[in-house]
Amino acid sequence: MKRKHISGQDFTLQRKETVNEIKKRRKEAFKEVRALLLVVFAAAVLGYAFVTFCFQTVKVRGPSMDPTLSDGETVIINKLSYTFSSVERGDIVAIKPIGTDQYYDIKRVIGLPGDKVAIVAGRFVINDKELDESYDLDEITAPGRLTSPITLGQQEYFVIGDNLGSSEDSRFSTYGNIQKSEIRGKVFYRLTKGRRGRIG
Fold first, then answer.
1. Is the pTM of this model over 0.70?
2. Following DSSP, what letter does each residue of 97-151 receive, concatenated?
3. Rounded distance, CA 195 to CA 162, Å?
4. 107 is catalytic
5. Which of 83, 74, 148 minimizes the C-alpha distance to 104?
6. CB 69 within 8 A of CB 161
7. 7, 31, 79, 107: which one is catalytic?
8. Distance between terminal CA atoms of the chain?
């Protein structure tokens, strides 16, 4: 940039941008916009993948899991949990029947593949042993189809609601045994205000 002295004053002669410089500046601006759009797109894809394949919030519907989980509470399910480990007895799981778009159903697993499940004197009996539970269940007054023992298939699970008096679960033919593919994740965290924290 040149400076010229005229009549005791300094003037700065501004050089006009060339056509090439204008094109270069526009090209750089376009690159920045494109980079920003790629970041936004990547964030959207990751967010979708996170919800679809990793974690999801689910609202509990109905009194089936009282007092462990109440109607209207929000929980987080881990969709990857059973990719790396097996479903265990006592797990609280999110279930979505095959071929339906209905909401997730929240239940507790008490019977694993190959187990023989029965009800004796108002109590669950698994493989001829009374269910060893760390959670309190009421005496069973509605055995449903468990008037005689049921043996689960190799991909089947027996699930119940902790509120046995108000739960439609595997005891009844309208619900039945749950297939492994219907278990969509493990419930592990509660978001409800005042009761926030890990479950199980």
1. yes
2. -TT--PPPEEEEEEE-TT-EEEEETTEEEETTEE---SS--PPPS--TTTTS-EE
3. 18
4. yes
5. 74
6. no
7. 107
8. 73
Q: Which helix (H) or strand (E) segment is 17 a member of?
A: none
Backbone angles phi, psi at 38, to 5 degrees: -65, -40
pLDDT above 80 (res 57): yes
Per-residue tokens: 182: 């219907």
Q: Quickly list DSSP for 162-176.
A: SSGGG---TTSTTT-
Report angle CA 137, 143, 145 to the nearest 5 degrees.
Answer: 135
- Smallest CA-to-CA distance from 77 within 113, 104, 47 is with 104
**Could you report the per-residue pLDDT of 58-110, keeping only the tens digit for each?**
999 999 999 999 999 999 999 998 988 899 999 999 998 766 667 789 999 99
Biggest CA pair distance of the chain: 114
Cα separation, 63 vs 12, in Å, equals 80
User: Per the structure block, which two tokens stand in for 158?
Assistant: 């027996």
Tokens 């004053």, residue located = 9
Catalytic residue among 2, 24, 64, 180: 64
Alpha carbon of 167 to those of 1, 4, 119, 164, 191: distances in Å?
84, 92, 16, 5, 23
